[in-house]
Design brief:
6 strands; alpha+beta; 3-stranded antiparallel sheet
Length: about 110
C-alpha cells in the first residue's frame, strides 16, 4: 500500500439547493431566488446576491433587499433528485464518482 494520499478532484456547485429549487419551479435563469430553512437563507441565486441577499440572512431582510425574490423552502429530497442526472453525466466521463452531498462530487485523479 502506498503512503501517498489519494488525489481527488472536486466539482462543487455551492448554490445547488437554489439551482434545484429553480429547476423544480421552472424559474427563468435570471429570476432572483433563495432557499430558506427556519426563515434563514440557505442558498441564493447570483441575481439575488447582486441585490444584496446573503446566506444566513433572515427572510424579511432578504425580501427587503430584493422585493421580487422568489422564496423556496428547503427540500433536501429535491436537491438529491435533481442532482442525480449530474452524477450520471459525470460518471460517464470519470469512473469512481463519490457524491459528498448534492452539489458536490469528488472523483479520483492521478498525477
Amino acid at each position: 500500500m502506498s503512503d501517498v494520499p489519494a488525489r481527488r478532484i472536486v466539482v462543487w456547485c455551492p448554490d445547488w439547493p437554489v439551482v434545484a429549487a429553480s429547476r423544480a419551479a421552472e424559474l427563468e435563469p435570471l429570476v432572483p431566488a433563495a432557499v430558506f430553512a427556519a426563515n434563514r437563507v440557505v442558498a441564493c441565486s447570483a441575481t439575488a446576491r447582486d441585490s444584496g441577499v446573503r446566506r444566513g440572512m433572515r427572510r424579511r431582510e432578504a425580501q427587503g433587499r430584493c422585493p421580487e425574490l422568489v422564496v423556496c423552502e428547503h427540500d433536501p429530497a429535491r436537491d438529491v433528485r435533481f442532482f442525480e442526472p449530474v452524477v450520471i453525466a459525470v460518471e460517464e466521463l470519470v469512473p469512481g464518482v463519490e457524491v459528498v452531498r448534492p452539489g458536490l462530487v469528488a472523483v479520483p485523479a492521478r498525477g
